[in-house]
Specification:
11 strands; Transferase(Phosphotransferase), domain 1; kinase activity; five-stranded antiparallel β-sheet; ATP-binding; transmembrane; Kinase-like_dom_sf; alpha+beta
Length: 507
C-alpha cells in the first residue's frame, strides 16, 4: 500500500513536471535534461504554479489541504505559487453512508435508531477529514452530526511521512529550499491536521467561541451536545442560515448589507483583540447569515490564539499603520521581539515606508490591509524577522474577512471601520481604565499572597544564607559609616564658614 502510494506520487511529480522544483540545482541539471528527453510526451508549457496546483488536486484531499496551507505562507512562498495554490478547493466526494452509520453505531455502542429520532443518510457537506449529516435527537432537537472519515488517521500519517521526505529533498536540492524551510512548513501542517482529527477539541473550541459571544448580537455559534460527542463524532445544533456568498439571497431576506459587512470587521477585531481567540478558517463555506442579520460561524477545526503581549503589540502596529507612523511600526517590531534586537530602526522604517507609501496614496477603501501585511512579510526577510505562526493564522483570517466584507459591500472601508474600535480598545488597555482593570484581574492573586508575606519573610530571614546576608549588611554599614564621617566633616566646615560670614556681617 505504501509502495503504491509512493509510486503514484512519483508518477504525478513526473507527469506534471514538478521535478523542476527538485532538480533545479545546477548539480542535478543533467538529470532534468535526461527526464525531459525520456518523458517527451508530457506537457510542461503551463506555468509551474498551475502545474503544482493540478498535481496536488490529483494526489487527493490531504495534499489539497497542504496546498491550501502553503497558500497562506506568503512570507515563505514565491508570489506566483501562493496565488495559484489559493485557488485550491477542498471539494471531496463523500464516503459511503453505510460506513458513516457503522462508525456511529460503533461509537455509541447501539443501533443508530436508538440514538437519533431521524438520521439523513445523504451528507450535507463533505471535506478531506470529515463529513456532516443532518439528524434529530430523541427530544426533537435538530442537529448536525460531524463524522471523521474511516481510516483517515492512517492515510494522514502515510501522507505526512511522504510530504516530509519530499520536503527534505526540496531542502537539499532546490535553490530556494533552505530559505523556504519546507520541513518546518510540513511540521506546522502536521500539527494543525492532527488538531482537526480530534473532534472533542473542535467541540471545545466551538463552546469557547459561543461563550465569548454569549451577550453579542453579532455572531451565532451552534450549541454543542456533549453527551453525543467523542474524538471521532461531534453533534451540534443545526443552524439555519443563508451562505454568505449568496449576496442577493441575503439582500432579499431584508438584511442590511452595509451593516453586515461592517459587523464582520467588528467580529474579527473583537475575537482578536478582546478575546485573543479567533476562528482562523473564515472562508465562505464556513460562514452563513441568519434571517435577523447575524453571522453564523461553522467548522471550528482551526482556531488561533494570541497572548496579551501579542494583542498589545498588534494593536500598536495597526494604529501606527493607520497614522502612517512608520518609525513606530519599526520600534514595535523590535520591542515585541519579532525583529532582532540589533535591527536599526531607521533602516526598518525606510523598508516599511517603501511598502506602504505607494499603497496609502490610494483611497482607503481601495487598500487591502491583508495585502499590505503580505508585502511586509516579504520585505521583512532581509531583516531576519521570523514570522510567528499565530501571526500567519491572523494574516490568513484577515484576508478571509477582507474578502467577505468586500464581497458583501464593495464600498467597505476596512480601515475606517477598524480604527475607532482599535483606538477604543487601546484606551481601555492603557491609562487609568486599563490600570483599574488590571488591578481587578490581579486582586485575587494579591488577596492570596498578602497574608503569606509575614511567613515568607520569616522563612527568608531564617534561611541558611543569613550569615552571608549579615556580612553584606555589615559591609554596607561600614561603607555608610565612612561616608557619614566625610559628610560630618564637610558639614562642620560649611557651618564654620557660615558662622564666620554671619559674624562678619554683624560687625
Amino acid at each position: 500500500m505504501r509502495l503504491l502510494r509512493v509510486l503514484k506520487i512519483l508518477f504525478v511529480v513526473l507527469r506534471f513536471g514538478l521535478d523542476e522544483f527538485i532538480l533545479a540545482h545546477e548539480r542535478t541539471a543533467f538529470l532534468r535534461i535526461t527526464l525531459n528527453w525520456l518523458m517527451f510526451f508530457r506537457d510542461t508549457d503551463a506555468p509551474r504554479a498551475e502545474r503544482l496546483r493540478l498535481a496536488l488536486e490529483s494526489l487527493g484531499p490531504i495534499f489539497v489541504k497542504f496546498g491550501q496551507m502553503l497558500s497562506t505562507r506568503r512570507d515563505l512562498m514565491p508570489t506566483d505559487l501562493a496565488d495559484e495554490l489559493a485557488k485550491l478547493q477542498d471539494q471531496v466526494p463523500p464516503f459511503p453512508s453505510s460506513q458513516a452509520i457503522a462508525l456511529l453505531e460503533a461509537n455509541f455502542g447501539k443501533p443508530l435508531s436508538q440514538v437519533f429520532a431521524r438520521f439523513d443518510e445523504i451528507p450535507i457537506a463533505s471535506a478531506s477529514v470529515a463529513q456532516v449529516h443532518f439528524a434529530a435527537l430523541p427530544d426533537g432537537r435538530e442537529v448536525a452530526v460531524k463524522v471523521l472519515r474511516p481510516g483517515i488517521a492512517r492515510v494522514i500519517e502515510h501522507d505526512l511521512d511522504l510530504l516530509d521526505a519530499a520536503a527534505a529533498l526540496l531542502e537539499r536540492f532546490w535553490a530556494d529550499g533552505r530559505r523556504l524551510k519546507p520541513r518546518e512548513v510540513v511540521a506546522e501542517f502536521s500539527k494543525h491536521l492532527h488538531d482537526e482529527l480530534d473532534l472533542m477539541r473542535e467541540a471545545a473550541s466551538a463552546s469557547q467561541l459561543k461563550r465569548n459571544f454569549a451577550t453579542s448580537n453579532l455572531l451565532l455559534v451552534p450549541e454543542i451536545y456533549w453527551d453525543w460527542c467523542s474524538e471521532s463524532v461531534m453533534v451540534m445544533e443545526r443552524m439555519h442560515g443563508i451562505p454568505v456568498s449568496q449576496v442577493e439571497a441575503i439582500r432579499a431576506a431584508g438584511v442590511d448589507i452595509s451593516k453586515l459587512a461592517a459587523d464582520g470587521v467588528e467580529i474579527f477585531y473583537t475575537q482578536v483583540f478582546r478575546d485573543g481567540f479567533f476562528h482562523a478558517d473564515m472562508h465562505p463555506g464556513n460562514v452563513q447569515v441568519a434571517r435577523d442579520g447575524r453571522y453564523i460561524a461553522l467548522d471550528f477545526g482551526i482556531m488561533g490564539t494570541l497572548t496579551d503581549t501579542d494583542k498589545s503589540y498588534l494593536a500598536q502596529n495597526f494604529i501606527a499603520f493607520f497614522r502612517r507612523d512608520y518609525k513606530r511600526v519599526a520600534e514595535v517590531h523590535i520591542e515585541s521581539g519579532w525583529a532582532p534586537a540589533d535591527t536599526r530602526v531607521d533602516e526598518l522604517e525606510a523598508a516599511i515606508r517603501s511598502v506602504c507609501e505607494p499603497i496609502f496614496d490610494k483611497p482607503l477603501r481601495e487598500v487591502s490591509f491583508g495585502r499590505v501585511l503580505l508585502r511586509l512579510f516579504q520585505t521583512s526577510r532581509r531583516f531576519g524577522i521570523e514570522i510567528q505562526p499565530q501571526l500567519v493564522l491572523l494574516q490568513k483570517t484577515l484576508l478571509n474577512i477582507e474578502g467577505l466584507g468586500l464581497q458583501l459591500d464593495p464600498e467597505l472601508d476596512l480601515w475606517k471601520t477598524a480604527k475607532p474600535w482599535l483606538e477604543r480598545w487601546m484606551s481601555e488597555q492603557i491609562g487609568w481604565r486599563g490600570f483599574v482593570k488590571s488591578m481587578q484581574e490581579e486582586a485575587p492573586h494579591y488577596a492570596m499572597l498578602l497574608p503569606q508575606l509575614p511567613r515568607l519573610l520569616y522563612q527568608r530571614l531564617n534561611d541558611k544564607r543569613l550569615d552571608q546576608l549579615e556580612d553584606i549588611l555589615e559591609m554596607h554599614f561600614r561603607q555608610t559609616q565612612l561616608r557619614n564621617r566625610w559628610l560630618m566633616a564637610i558639614t562642620a566646615v560649611l557651618t564654620a564658614m557660615l558662622i564666620w560670614m554671619v559674624y562678619g556681617a554683624l560687625k
